[in-house]
Amino acid sequence: MSAGASTGFGAMDQKQRIEAARRVVVKVGSNVLTAADGLDLKMVRRIARQVCGLIAGGREVILVSSGAMAAGVKKVGLERRPDELPRRQAVAAVGQAGLIMEYEKAFERHGRKVAQILLTSEDLTSRKRYLNARNTLNTLIEWKIVPIVNENDTVSVEEIKLGDNDNLAAMITLLMDADLLIILSDIDGLFTKDPRTEPDAELIPVVKGITRSTEKAAGSIPGPLGTGGMLSKLNAARKVTAAGVPMVVAKGDTPGIIERLVRGESYGTYFVPRGEKLTRRKCWIAFSLKPKGVLTIDAGARAALALRRKSLLASGIVGVKGEFAVGAPVELQDLSGEAIGIGLVNYGAAEIRKIMGLKSQHIGQVLGQKPYDEVVHRDNLVITVDEGEAGART
Model-level pTM? Predict the structure, then answer.
């Protein structure tokens, strides 16, 4: 069975896309890497062997690894993750040291070096730091060194948290213009229900569009050790597939799972990408920046933006929320409150409130100047909803 409406990609396309992927991001979840007494060293070695096999075959691999918090909890001797932020950060610091050490030993068996990359959301929302992170990762790949990425839990607070490593993996996929995201979990993929508690749960092998029923299925499948769960994987899929990149969720302890997936074998759940790949700059706008406000647009503006790839004009705006300056990222919502995209504004919130609903030729009369016809130019706009046609892409 499959989920969602068709977007024109068939089974052959799935196999061809995966086989053709040259740059792959592999995310390994906490539940895959953690045993009863701490890190599962056999699993670490299996992951290292498979990643090295991909590299030997000509692919580039970036590893996003959870496990620091879970490993730290076991190493410190705690029964569960602490609730207090300083304690969680301390546990993560202990666990991260052991995690990267074991990866280093595992990759050395295959003649590969590794590099530790710890990030917060600030490293991805700042354009300068975003580019610096990309340049560093590209250099490591050029040197044939395997980047191992994790969130910097030791310094992260709510304001700068990326959320979870599923989201981080999606962000790295977009940052590095990767061709495929593989997320290894402790279950076989997305099911209609939680397979650990519901015997009649069915695996959904292909998701062609993320719908409310898909979200409902994902929301019923939590992650006991990690901060994620199936819903966080669905959110990651929403990002990467909107940018034109396929994603697979599969069971991490399946023998040779990474190698099997990149050969195009059908395992887990495959999330079908929409349209052509977004440019790196549009990926940054759409998925790295946090909106500073909201513009509500009418039905005509929604159709112009989503179907005809037009810029957002003042005449289509019916509401403004928040206070923001020129150049700020804002979320665009339709009359029902659905978020349809994000863009960088040419006018501040106060100015938009004065000109919303007006034709472009009247902007100068109201503001005393008209530096732009468009409130959001299409070059600075990304539509994130699927209108069912390739023309819905920006």
Answer: 0.80
